[in-house]
Every structure is written in structure tokens, then in C-alpha cells.
Amino acid sequence: MTDRDQTNRWLVLVIVCVAQFMVVLDATIVNVALPSIQHSLHFSASSLQWIVNAYTLVFGGFLLLGGRAADLFGRQLLFVAGVVVFTGASLLNGLATTSNVLIGGRALQGLGAALVSPAALSIVTTTFAEGRERTRALGVWSAIAAGGGAVGLVVGGFLTSTLSWRWVFFINLPIGIAAVLLAIRYVANSRAEERPETVDVAGAVTVTAGLLVLVYDIVKAQQYGWTSGRTLGLAAVAAALLASFVVIERRSRAPLIRLDIFRIRSLTGSNAAMLFVVSGLFAMFYFASLYVQDVLGYSPLKAGLAFLPVTAGIVIGAGLSQAAIRWMSARHVPLIGIALASGGLFLLGRIPTHGTYLSDLLPGLLLMSIGMGLVFVPLTLIATTNIGAGDAGLASGLLNTTQQVGGALGLAVLSTLATSRTNNVVNGFGQVATIVQKTSAQVDGYKLAFTAGAFLMLAAGVVVLGLIRRDDVATIDSEEAITATV
Questions:
Q1: What pLDDT shows up at residue 139?
Q2: In 74-163, where does DSSP find H-type helix?
Q3: What is the pLDDT of residue 376?
Q4: 3-state secondary structure string across 349-367
Q5: CA–CA separation, 341 and 370 (whole Å)
Q6: Using N-to-C axis directions, what is the helix angle for 333-348 and 265-290, rounded to 10°?
Q7: Element (H, E) at 346
Q8: DSSP-derived secondary structure letter, 432
Q9: What single-letter DSSP state applies at residue 256?
């Protein structure tokens, strides 16, 4: 192998990791800019969440389709197409003058991300042979994924403070253009040896549309009434779309999700637990970002820096989880993490209106973040154990989809609860509320959301206890499996 071939492989890794960093960055960079966007484009408290959910729902809904299309049409082609869509949507978002345009642009960004992410990971695994080099390459990939979210909070705060919220989108333009040009030049358009017969567009469209209608229905239920005809009608539409997805998957020659894979108890249990975990945790950044800026008066940059300890906590928890799996069952480690994370959320559920970062916010954030690290590593291992080589990609894609969908559904439910509590408190004053009273009502809504998130976490613990048995994690608990994952 020539030095040039060696260099080009690592150059390919740099190219795809830069694009993946952009995708991961965008999942959090917007959070710190939310108050600025809300004031600029006149989002209501209930509609603000769509800036986040439009991205995550479309991303999660089309993620498996993106992986299938990359195998069929070529990984470089889908990678370039995804980056082009993502970059174009970023430009649209930066220029947006109405809330609807921004929400549509965020959905388009989610579609681009759903094409980029699986294609990029496939490029990495096909560029590097199995063994030490692939392990090193995937280590870099994992570091990008872990660090991108934290960097997004700081970069988002810096850009919003020094320039404007529009630059959290404009920053993607030079990155995307460079990634496209370099990918065309250096990345080969490889395809899977056993290509699927179809990309199952119908399946991806019905499941994504069903989830979008469901989230919209949850968000609007507080306004229309939970038992109103409109709410029940939208629920029926969502159920019909999701049922159609199941029918399509059963009849498709090459379904996005082969439904019999859910007979594997470790996969089903871990995905169900992860759904509750991310439902409870995903909204934490959303509500905490609003609290530190709207209530504590932090600038966007200071708000971003305030979340850096969360990254440290996740790293600590992830490290502890690997050590814990060595001397106790992989089934028990997520239970410890769930207990810590729910405890942190319960602490956040007690935040006062006139609170301080060090005494009222930081303890809950640290406890919650360490718990996150302890939960995610073992649940990821459990979700991908007992899986045949041919289903490894599907199992990984399902877990990623679960995280995106669970986060969106959790944010919809918790945001609806928070908005409802705030409105009820304001209406209870019996007069035009003062700024102080409105702030107090707002904090009451955040507290309810954090507390409800803690109960969602506890529900994940019940799922782990009820669905995952000791023999389901026997392979992970064996000494050979532990050695292989370190």
C-alpha cells in the first residue's frame, strides 16, 4: 500500500467527519439561540419547539431510508446529495423572515442529515479494513459525535452574542461547500455488495408523516382540548399513517424495518428503554437553555458555557459505565444511570424563580449528565448484541431512529405540559399578570417539565427490569465481550 493511499484514507475520514460534525453540531447549536429566534420571528411558547422537532422528526424518520439509499445508489452520491440539501436548507434558515419558513427549513435540514449520517458512517467502515485501523477511525468518529453537541452549545452562544442567531445557520455554508468539493474529488462512490431491491420511500414517508401528525396533535391538544373533535381526528390520522407503515413493511420486498427483528428481546427492550430515556432527557437542554436566558438573564454565550459541565459529566459517566460492566451485569448498569439521571431531573424540578447557577442548576445538571453516560453505553451494547452480521446495520439504525423520535415525542409532551401549566398559573392571577408573575408562571412550567421528564426516566427503568433478562446480556457480560469492547 502506498503512502498516498494511506494519506487518502485518512483524508476521506476527515471529510466525512467534518460533515458529520456539522450535522451533530446543528442538533444543539440552535438550543442556545432559541430565545433570540423566538423574539425575532415571534414564535409562541408552544410553537418554539418546532425549531427542534421539525429537524429531529424528519432526521429520525428518514434515517433508515438514507442508509438503504446509500447502499443502492452509492455512498458518495448520497453523502454529497445530503450535504447539498443540508447546506441549502441552512442558507434558507439564515435568511428566514417568518416562523413557517424557518420550520420548513429545519425539516429540510433534517432530511439532509438523514442522507449524510448513514452514508458517512458507511464510507468510514468500507474505507478502513476491520481491525486496528477501523477501530481508530471509529474512535475519531465517536469523538466527533460526542463532542459536537457540546461544541454546538458554545459556538451557538458565541455566534448569537457576537453576530446574530442567523449565523448559527450561515456557519454551515463554508463547511458544506468544502465537504462537497472534497468528497467529489476524494471519496469513491462505493455500493453495497448485496444491494436492496428498493429504498422503500413509501415506508419512510408514512412513518415520518405519522409521527409529525402525532407531535402536532400533542402540541395543539392544549389549545383545542384533549377530547375535541380536531384532536381526536388528528390522532386518528396519525394512527392510520403509522398502521399503513406497518402494512407496507410487511408487504415490501425490501422493507426499511424487517418487523420480525423485534422478536429479539434484547433489541426490543433496549430500544423501548431508550425511547423513554431520550424522551425524558432531550427536553433538558431545551428548557434549561430557556431558563438560564429568560429567567437568570444569561447572554447566549454565557448560557452555552453553562452547559460545558454536562459534557464532562457524560464523559465521566461513560467511563464509569465501561468499568461497571466489568464487575456487574450490563443489565444493572443502566438502572444505576437511570436512578442518577432521574434524581438530577427531580432536582431541576425544584428550580426557583430567583435561583443561581451554582446552587440551583449545576447539581441537577451534573447528576443528570453522569447518569446519561451510565445509561447510553450499556443500552447501546444491549441493542446491538444477539444480532446477526446481516442485521447489524438495521439494529444500529433502529437505535439512532429511536433516539431521534423519542426526543421529539418527549419534547412535544413536556413542552405541552409546561405551556399548559404556565397558562393556568397566569390565568389564576385573575388580572393582567406582571412581568414578575409571568416569569414565575414560566418557571412553574419548566419545573413541571423537568419533573415529568424524571418520571419518563423511571419508566425506562421499569422497561429494563421487565423486558431485559440476564440471559439477554450473557454475551456482553462474558469476559471475552468486555475485552472486545474496550
A1: 62
A2: 75-95, 99-127, 132-162
A3: 81
A4: CCCCCCCCHHHHHHHHHHH
A5: 7
A6: 20
A7: helix 333-348
A8: P
A9: S
Residue 101 reports pLDDT greater than 70: yes
Calculate ∠ Cα 296-301-304, nearest 5°.
80
pLDDT tens digits for range 289-312: 889 888 888 888 888 888 888 878
- Helices 172-186 and 3-41, packing angle to 10 deg: 150
The residue behind cell 461513560 is: 318
Rg (the chain; Cα; Å): 22
Q: What are phi and psi of 97, to 5 degrees?
A: -115, -5
- Split at pLDDT 50, 70, 90, the class of 480 is very low
Contact residues for 457 (Cβ-Cβ < 8 A; gap 6+): 276, 277, 280, 281, 338, 341, 342, 345
The CATH topology of domain 1-197 is Growth Hormone; Chain: A; (1.20.1250)
Residue type, 30: V
In contact, 317 and 372? CB cutoff 8 Å? yes
Per-domain residue ranges of the chain: 1-197, 201-251, 261-486
Assess whether pLDDT exceeds 80 at residue 332.
yes
**Domain at 261-486: CATH code:** 1.20.1250.20
Q: Do domains 1-197 and 261-486 have the same CATH topology?
A: yes
Q: What is the pLDDT of residues 354-376, one digit of tens each?
A: 888 888 889 999 999 888 888 88
Would you tell me the crossing angle of helices 392-428 and 265-290 to the nearest 10 degrees? 40
C-alpha cell recorded at residue 304: 452555552
Quick count: other Cβ atoms within 10 Å of Cβ 319? 14
Highest mean pLDDT, choosing among 51-65, 160-174, 241-255: 160-174
